[in-house]
């Protein structure tokens, strides 16, 4: 079956512009996660959605970052007024029910470069 | 706060040699433990995980890891390296406390396999 998909695969933008990154989780998975992978910070958690519960936004680095999950499926991560330090690979993952012992299935990521 | 330490950001082995990638976690309560592999320009793929039960866990591609509570370790091994094992390996924990099933990752170990 289809895995987690993300688009675009690569995004180059200018400093100060807004960007939207999209994630399509595996069908039927209720939990969705965003992570960021950067040279300086490694892999870090950003935000977590589980069903209809309020998302855990504790990993978002600033108020320029926001995310939505519509209809319990597709998610969009938005970065406003991008900065050069936002350059990273943004990874999305999903899991069936959001329990701690579940495997998280990762997408290929969106590579963001802010010039 | 939970943390994961991977000793050795780069490890190089000869084809056919033993692979040993080290992972230690900090937690008074043993978390769930995961090893993921990332091939170039791809997302993360689960190699194996420890949740409960047998402390020696076997994963895909001939890898295994042993959970040692007394040493707070979860080292990854493979008896005989293959060229196709060249990739980056991440150890991760899922803390048992806290509301969110987020993964906390180590900084990764890049494995090179020499012919």
Please provide a written account of the structure.
The complex is a heterodimer of chains A (115) and B (115). Chain A is globular and about 40 Å long. The mean pLDDT of chain A is 93. Chain A starts with a strand and ends with a strand. Chain A contains no helices and ten strands. In chain A, the strands form two sheets. In chain A, strands 2, 4, 5, 8, 9 and 10 form a six-stranded mixed beta sheet that branches. Chain A has a four-stranded antiparallel beta sheet with strand order 1-3-7-6, with no helix packed on it. Chain A has strands at 5-7, 10-13, 19-24, 31-38, 42-50, 65-69, 75-79, 88-95, 105-106, 110-114. Chain A is mostly beta strands. With 115 residues, chain B is mostly beta strands. Chain B contains no helices and twelve strands. In chain B, strands 2, 5, 6, 10, 11 and 12 form a six-stranded mixed beta sheet that branches. In chain B, strands 3-9-8-7 form a four-stranded antiparallel beta sheet, with no helix packed on it. The mean pLDDT of chain B is 91.
């Amino acid at each position: 079956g289809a895995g987690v998909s993300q688009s675009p695969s690569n995004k180059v933008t200018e400093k100060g512009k807004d960007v939207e990154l999209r994630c399509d989780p595996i069908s039927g998975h209720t939990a969705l996660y965003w992570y960021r992978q950067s040279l300086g910070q490694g892999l870090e958690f950003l935000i977590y959605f589980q069903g209809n519960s309020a998302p855990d936004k504790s990993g978002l680095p600033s108020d320029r970052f926001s995310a939505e999950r519509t209809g319990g499926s597709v998610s969009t991560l938005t970065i406003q007024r991008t900065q050069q330090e936002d350059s990273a690979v943004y990874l999305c993952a999903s899991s069936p029910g959001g329990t701690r012992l579940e495997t998280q299935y990762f997408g290929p990521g969106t590579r963001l470069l802010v010039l | 706060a939970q943390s994961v330490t991977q000793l050795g950001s780069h490890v190089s082995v000869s084809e056919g040699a033993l692979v040993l990638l080290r992972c230690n976690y900090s937690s008074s309560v043993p978390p769930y433990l995961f090893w993921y592999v990332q091939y170039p320009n791809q997302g993360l793929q689960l190699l194996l995980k420890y949740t409960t039960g047998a402390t020696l866990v076997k994963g895909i591609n001939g890898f295994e890891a042993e959970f040692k509570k007394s040493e707070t370790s979860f080292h990854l091994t493979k008896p005989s390296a293959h060229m196709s094992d060249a990739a980056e390996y991440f150890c991760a924990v899922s803390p048992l406390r806290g509301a969110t099933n987020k993964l906390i990752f180590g900084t990764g170990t890049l494995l090179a396999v020499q012919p």
